[in-house]
Amino acid sequence: MRILWFSNSPSLYGKNKKNYNGGGWIESLEKLITLQTNIELAISFFHPDNCFKSKTETTTYYPISLYNSPIRKAIHNITYSSFDHYEVKSFVRVINDFKPDIIHVFGSEKSFGLVTNHTDIPVVVHIQGLLNPIKNAYFPPNYNKLDIILPNLLKPVSIFNKLKSLHFFNHDTRREEKILKNCKYLMGRTSWDKDVSQLYAPNSKYFFCNEALRDIFYNSPPWELKVEKKFTIVSTLSQTPYKGFDVILKTTHLLKKLYPKFNFEWQIFGINEYTEFEKRFNIKSKHLNIYLKGVVNSETLVKNLLESNVYVHPAYIDNSPNSVCEAQILGLPIIASNVGGIPSLIENNKNGILIPANDPYTMASKIIMLKNNPDAAIKIGKEARKTAQERHDKKKILSDLLNIYKNLSNA
């Protein structure tokens, strides 16, 4: 069976020199699939390499390079929405060359899903995040575009880039709606992504399949409670407003105000700075014991997670964030917003703690509770690890995926 993936990640192409927040789980899935002698896999993705295809012993790679010249990049930035047509032509060229039996599109965020209207081959769209719900929760309360612009008045390039990203995002939401409406087959992993995607495509067939995590998280020893003077909280965020950095600022402000003797620090991986929110609240992160660690490799991330006391995910919207799943499989106690697909990952007060979105008061309270009740933290962490080990069992994931491909081939 010939399977073609369209992916936002280059997976293992060129040894894939990426840090922790790339498509690590796509790489893990590729490793699983290529062990199957009855599967011939190809992966296509946007990449600056100027070759049509590159074949290894196990996988054929199709890097799509459309914007690797300054002129083409400039034209693309100015006329972003019109480039979907050119991208689809590249996808069709890949399809015609590889001649797959099944096309597996990872994510509805990019233009890959538009191929459903250009081929009779079965196409399944694998839901990652969902842009339209993200757009609905993109800005925190009392926050808007001006809050992005005003702190950067002396940085016109920064303002341009941020507004450009918002413009691109708005087009991507419209395109996602078009993609989902034309889907015959969907794949996902939470009740939320099933409900939302089938809202757009009520006649589609939905397949359930969990995702493989990066190898290091399976192989790591489990988290153990550290009895030390300093209580360490960890989060992994991207620099987008809906990820909840403002909630972290408000939570730490409460903790320092109400519990001045509480010796804690909050480590945030994935970002180096977040000046918009700091200026909005007139607060410096470091004054609240918040330390922005930037992007790190998986080994460094695992080390820091294992040395922490609790993992916190404060997002306003999310589906099934890998960061939460990775913290769970290590056995950390987790506090997360009760939004999107996260309730499919966490059973409240059993294998994690769910709190309302934008509720720094409850978040602060739960952090104090875990600090004062180490037995509860240990119990929740053990249940989290057990749940995640079952959810992310590689053999089960591979079996489910192969059954989906079998169903699609018989469609």
Automatic annotation (TrEMBL):
Among the GO molecular function terms of this UniProt record, one is: glycosyltransferase activity
What species is given as this protein's source? Answer: Draconibacterium aestuarii
Fetch the SUPFAM superfamilies from UniProt.
UDP-Glycosyltransferase/glycogen phosphorylase (SSF53756)
User: Which InterPro entries does the entry link to?
Assistant: Glyco_trans_1 (IPR001296)
Transferase listed as a keyword? yes
What Gene3D superfamilies does the annotation carry? Glycogen Phosphorylase B
Name of the protein in its database record = Glycosyltransferase
Say yes or no: keyword Cell membrane present.
no
